[in-house]
Design brief:
The chain has 121 residues and is an alpha+beta fold. The chain has two helices and six strands, in the order H-E-E-H-E-E-E-E. Strands 1-2-4-5-6-3 form a six-stranded antiparallel beta sheet, covered by helices on one side.
């Protein structure tokens, strides 16, 4: 089982220009104080950015792999559905940068910038 299946992350839209994911936050995703663990935002951001970045590559020659991620946690989250939207900021020959925003209803929970390297395989 991979992490996407383990966390039950659903892909709602997958194109080279936009990715939309959803995930239901449950008690097992919380840290000991009853709030969503911040690592969940990072997992969702890198997942969305990676899926989108790979849509811009020839999968027989390259794969996009994470270089770094910078996440800002804007609001605490307890339980409920998250909506994740990722869009490319720059699609380069070697590096792609994606911006990822995570919402619970209309309230933004976090924002991430993800840089990925287009690795030859």
């Amino acid at each position: 089982m991979n992490l996407i299946d383990l966390f039950n992350i659903k892909t709602e839209l997958l194109t080279p220009a936009k990715v939309i994911l959803t995930m239901e936050i449950k008690s097992e995703h919380q840290q000991p104080y009853g709030l969503m663990h911040g690592g969940i935002s990072c997992v969702l951001a890198e997942t969305a950015a990676s899926l989108g970045a790979n849509q811009n590559l020839d999968s027989s020659k390259q794969v996009a792999v994470g270089l770094d991620i910078q996440t800002t946690h804007l609001r605490p989250m307890k339980l409920g559905q998250l909506n994740v939207t990722a869009i490319p900021v720059k699609i380069g020959q070697q590096v792609q940068t994606w911006q990822v925003k995570i919402f619970h209803h209309d309230r933004q929970i976090s924002e991430s910038n993800v840089n990925l390297f287009n690795q030859m395989i």
